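Exercise 7. Given the encoded structure of a 88-residue chain, write a plausible sequence.
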């Protein structure tokens, strides 16, 4: 039973892997996965949940990341913006 669940999990992860390099997530996945301990799947998850990093201005960034990585939100907040109409 556990082997079957592991196989299902691997299939789901393979299905999601195509989004690592696809818009609108590619830029965020590449930048976030550069951080130590951040897998590409973890980066994709975070990028897809947050979507608009501008929602976390100033002091709110501390709620997202640990104290030694606070600059992450600042860096991400400077990324070019795309209007929702421009997304596929």
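Solution.
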């Amino acid at each position: 039973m556990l082997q079957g669940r592991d196989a299902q999990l691997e299939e789901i992860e393979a299905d999601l892997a195509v989004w690592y390099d696809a818009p609108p997530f590619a830029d965020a996945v590449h930048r976030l996965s550069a951080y130590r301990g951040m897998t590409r799947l973890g980066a994709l998850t975070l990028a897809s949940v947050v979507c608009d990093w501008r929602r976390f201005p100033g002091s709110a960034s501390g709620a997202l990341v640990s104290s030694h990585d606070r600059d992450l939100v600042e860096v991400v907040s400077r990324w070019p913006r795309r209007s929702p109409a421009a997304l596929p």
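Remark. Residues 2-80 form one domain. Students should compare their own answers with the one above.
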